Amino acid sequence: MWFKQLATNHHPNGNPQIPPVSSSLSYISLLFTLFYSPNLTGQGPFPGVLDVYTLGGGISEVRASLLANKGIVVLALAYYGFQDMPRTVPKYFDLEYFEEAITFLRRQPQVQGPGIGILSISKSGDLALSMASFLSGISATACINGSNANTVVPLHYKDLIIPSITPIVENVTFSPSGILDIRDALPDPETEGNRGSVIPIERSSSRFLFAASEDDRNWNSCLFAQQAAARLRHHGKENFEVVMYPRAGHFLEVPYMPHCPSGFHTAVGQVVVFGGEAKAHHQAQLDLWRRVQEFFRKHLDGNNTAQKAMLYTSG
Fold it and tell me: Considering the domain 2-314, what is its CATH architecture?
């Protein structure tokens, strides 16, 4: 509990007077933490967002707690590596687990309907696109440096199986400092043999925010964002926006989080380059944090309750 308070109370975007309430719960088979601001009781309901973090396992609560300080009810969801969940990446991800989380969040009395938002980064980006494509009740999907194709392990949903795109190991290189550079290991999803892994986002009625870093060394997130936008446009849809950040690296976190130019990669099992130049990366994080809040307020908050709450908690 102390870490949640520290992350909220002492972060430059937090409010020391009004830390969000957090509830770590299990609902049937779900493991999550639900954040909302206690001093906003009676002023809602508020927009609801499902925060699905990257492939490291466990629950990452920093982003969720800070977003809750902006008048949004946020459910930070674990999908492996937490409590009695499998400790390692499972053989496949089951979309019905995420469907259960969406249903639970939409039923909360603090949450304004009819739809919720999804906030994702890296591997959870393609999970978010799959949720938006196959599940109901999703109105806004933010995909940060994600892929437009299913990655790492197959995705199951009822009778449907989407295979994961197969990396090309021969494309792995080394940085000048001797660290693995895997940027080109994931092939172009739109080439022959890979299209079966591409997520059919044209099925979705959600709005999309695709954010991509031009120096992302984890994979070619700019290409993936452009392909996702082109696919939507090809199907007559303009329900998306794309923003690209020059010289920024893979892990675009909340503002003032340290730049992570390299680190241990769960799927690879080794340290890899994540890219980015420190100043440009920091500026990208500032800009994206503002865009994410505006995106969710615009597409989830018909009554402007989140904007009122943000003003309330900022005073």
Answer: 3-Layer(aba) Sandwich (3.40)
Cis peptide before 114 (omega within 30 of 0): yes
The verdict on whether 216 is a catalytic residue reads yes
pTM metric for this prediction? 0.87
What is the number of residues in the chain?
Answer: 315
Q: What is the pLDDT of residues 228-269, one digit of tens each?
A: 999 999 999 999 999 999 999 999 999 999 999 999 998 898
Name the active-site residue from 22, 122, 130, 206.
122
**Which is the catalytic residue, given 164, 216, 265, 299?**
216
> In what order do the strands lie in the sheet containing 262-265?
173-174, 180-181, 270-273, 262-265
- Taking residue 30's Cβ as centre, other Cβ atoms within 10 Å add up to 18
Annotation says 282 is catalytic: no
Query: Does 130 qualify as catalytic in the annotation?
Result: no
- What residue segments make up the domains of the chain, in order of their start? 2-314
Q: In the chain, what's the furthest Cα-to-Cα distance?
A: 58
Asked if residues 178 and 213 have their Cβ atoms less than 8 Å apart, the reply is no
Contacts of 211 (CB under 8 A, 6+ apart): 142, 143, 144, 145, 225, 242, 243, 244, 245, 252, 288, 291
Nearest to 216 by CA among 185, 170, 177: 185
